[in-house]
Amino acid sequence: MRQLDPTQLQPGVPASASFAASAQALPEAALPGSLRDLGFELRRSALATVLEPPTVSVPAGPFVMGSDPSKDPSAYSDECPQRLITTEDFQIGKFPVTVAEYSIAVQEGIVPEPGVFRGVTWQDQLRKPALPVTSVSWYHAVAYTVWLSECLGRPCRLPTEAEWEKAARGDDGRIYPWGDNWDPERANTPDRGVGQLAEIGLYPEGVSPFGVEDMAGNVWEWCSTILKPYAYKRDDGREDLYVLGDRIMRGGAWYCVPYNSRAACRGYGYSGMYLGGGFRLIVGSSWQQLVA
To answer: Would you call 33 exposed, middle or buried from its count of C-beta atoms within 10 A (0-12, 13-18, 19+)?
Structure first.
């Protein structure tokens, strides 16, 4: 398991009282052509004009969760034991949440500007709206999902780590979204990557069996799940949003070794840290439905 170090966060993150005062965002009507081409749509509501992301359907049923060290020598011990886990059907964002999407919530005073990580500021992120937003705390990722639910009129939330892993690897236990063998051309990592965060949709050959993209490398993604040992059980308290504790992050990042981009790899971080974290959405399913 790889823990992300919150001590690398740069100081100067604005306090909640100054969210709106310091906010910057794209013009309300701006929809970059690259995002339009990838299926994003502007949605206007009484609260705000937001970007609705394209989603992918993942069917209900069992899938192989975790790692078998006899098949995957890079497996960490916390990924074991491997076993079948069953999920309900769900709709997951085809891509992680982008700067363009998140900037609207910053402008509306819903969330603060993301933190500074590896010298990249919020102003740097705003120059490329098709980047996945990064340096967002788990708390603010959750706040974004609540606000977006109100804007869209349908529930949104973070994925559980089981949902995230199923969307990334399918139901056959493959190690990476595309299969069992590492391919540096299919993900943004130090192994032939671009050396920095990349815009979404640049690695279509890394698509998962269900059609979800950018799930290996590029940016760690927050899940709703509290760090607990396997086997995964969604009703054992690990999906309680009101409990303090480290939360799971998945997917690896542009600066991480490739084996941290395996679908079963479990990163984690303190819920309040801004260090390098992004996220993607589950749309059409509420947290209350999840834990009922």
So the answer is: exposed
